[in-house]
């Protein structure tokens, strides 16, 4: 069954989602699912030796959370494209705020700017093109 396309208007702020605080278990579960066992994601001493304050989450974890959020809002079948840029690391104990703004619309699609932030710091940003109702 296909869900109805959503109506979006340029300038519209989308409903936000909060995720966290991020735990070591969240990171380990994602590593197991994706096979990313880089020690930056599970070994605090290794992460500190690399110049980080401690273990960080893999960027694809935040990218996946952001993708799931926009897909939940518009319906995955209406998500035409999605791209992200990693801006800063996500550490254990931090809480993500996912949000977005409709940048523009045309007859049947909208471009949405999306981002995940921790306070005022952008962790990941990107764009999504979605099908909309006319």
From TrEMBL:
Domain MaoC-like: 10-118
Pfam family, one: MaoC_dehydratas
Taxonomy, superkingdom: Bacteria
PANTHER family linked to this entry: (3R)-HYDROXYACYL-ACP DEHYDRATASE SUBUNIT HADB, 3-HYDROXYACYL-THIOESTER DEHYDRATASE HTDX-RELATED
Family: Belongs to the enoyl-CoA hydratase/isomerase family.
Protein name in the entry: Acyl dehydratase
Species this chain originates from: Gordonia polyisoprenivorans
């Amino acid at each position: 069954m296909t869900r109805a396309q959503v109506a979006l208007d340029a300038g519209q702020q989308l409903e936000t989602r909060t995720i966290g605080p991020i735990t070591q278990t969240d990171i380990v579960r994602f590593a197991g699912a994706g096979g990313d066992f880089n020690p930056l994601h599970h070994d605090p001493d290794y992460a500190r030796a690399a110049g980080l304050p401690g273990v960080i989450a893999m960027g694809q974890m935040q990218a996946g959370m952001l993708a799931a959020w926009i897909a939940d809002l518009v319906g995955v079948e209406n998500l035409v494209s999605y791209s992200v840029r990693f801006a800063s690391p996500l550490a254990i104990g931090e809480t993500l705020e996912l949000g977005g703004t409709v940048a523009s619309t045309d007859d049947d699609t909208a471009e949405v700017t999306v981002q995940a932030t921790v306070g005022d710091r952008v962790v990941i940003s990107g764009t999504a093109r979605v099908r909309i109702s006319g």
